[in-house]
Specification:
By secondary structure, the protein is of the alpha+beta class. The chain has helices at residues 42-50, 63-67, 73-86, 108-111, 162-175, 233-240, 249-268, 272-286, and strands at 3-6, 14-17, 21-25, 32-36, 55-57, 115-116, 123-130, 136-143, 149-154, 185-187, 191-195, 198-207, 215-223, 226-230.
């Protein structure tokens, strides 16, 4: 829906924001094409009529190209900020915001933190919304591909504080053994991924070397009350018991070793809560079947 908000200078003016088109550049020829939205406001419609050769309809795109369209992250970030501060129409303004994040100097492909949509429908990006007390109240999800759009996914009740989430992820990474040379390790920001039973909070660490692409070193996932660290998000989710099916022997061994290492580290620092969570995750993993 179109979003309007009071001018930040407090002069009673209103700014109007409405998405009009997406610019697509042919990497081989440099040709620029503007993919217009299906529903246009009068201002955008005027530009389309004035320069019809610059704009194409989504229906005119090849299906493979349509499926490769990226999420509208800029629009989603603006809508998330408005929802956090003012709520939906008719709601009492919650006075929230987007959680503060540290500067992320990793490449955009890593920094944006997109995740795959089910069924190969494309990729999506999600950003958390917090209230005035920094409790997570929901996610704004920008979906790419054929179902391209921006969606609001509220939580039934406010979750824990963002500072608590960040601290738990940081503590898990700090307590893990160093896997990159000193000075070559760099951490990404905290990402959010919507799941069927809540929100997954993910933070990854990368080894960055000159003249080479960043290499994933490890990832930590906070799912509910459990924090699991592994070599990748997939391994962390498997160690937590997420997912179905048979594990390969190599996957089973890697996840068992990761959980065992977490138990030893928790025992050394006297963190019995972390020890218990890793122990329960190990028990859930033991209940799954490993392939020969």
């Amino acid at each position: 829906y179109p979003l309007s908000r009071r001018d930040s200078l407090g002069r009673g003016e209103y700014g109007y924001v409405h998405h009009a088109a997406t610019a697509m550049v042919n990497a081989h020829t440099g040709r620029l094409t503007l993919i217009r939205d299906d529903s246009l406001d009068p201002i955008a419609l005027t530009w389309v009529r004035r320069y019809p050769s610059l704009f194409v309809a989504r229906a005119a795109l090849a299906p493979d190209l349509l499926a490769a369209l990226p999420p509208e992250t800029d629009l989603a970030r603006l809508q998330a900020r408005v929802i956090a501060r003012y709520g939906r129409r008719g709601e009492t303004p919650p006075g929230g915001d987007l959680p503060g994040t540290t500067i992320d100097s990793l490449p955009a492909a890593i920094r944006d933190g997109d995740f795959a949509l089910p069924g190969g429908a494309g990729v999506a990006s999600a950003m958390p919304v917090v209230d005035a007390n920094q409790h997570v109240t929901g996610l704004v999800i920008a979906a790419g591909g054929a179902p391209r759009g921006v969606y609001w996914d509220p939580l039934p009740r406010p979750s824990v504080r963002w500072s608590t989430i960040s601290a738990r992820l940081k503590a898990a990474l700090d307590s893990a053994p160093a896997l990159a040379p000193p000075g070559a390790s760099r951490r990404g920001g905290v990402r959010v991924i919507p799941a069927g039973d809540g929100i997954l909070y993910v933070q990854s660490e990368f080894a960055v070397r000159p003249d080479d692409a960043p290499q994933l070193v490890r990832s930590v996932v906070l799912a509910g009350d459990a924090v699991v660290t592994a070599r990748s998000v997939a391994q962390a989710l498997g160690a937590h018991g997420a997912g179905e099916g048979t594990l390969s022997a190599e996957e089973f061994r890697a996840r068992t070793q990761a959980l065992y290492a977490q138990m030893r580290q928790a025992l050394q620092r006297g963190d019995w809560s972390a020890f218990g969570r890793a122990f329960e995750a190990l028990g859930a993993l033991a209940g799954r079947r490993a392939a020969p």
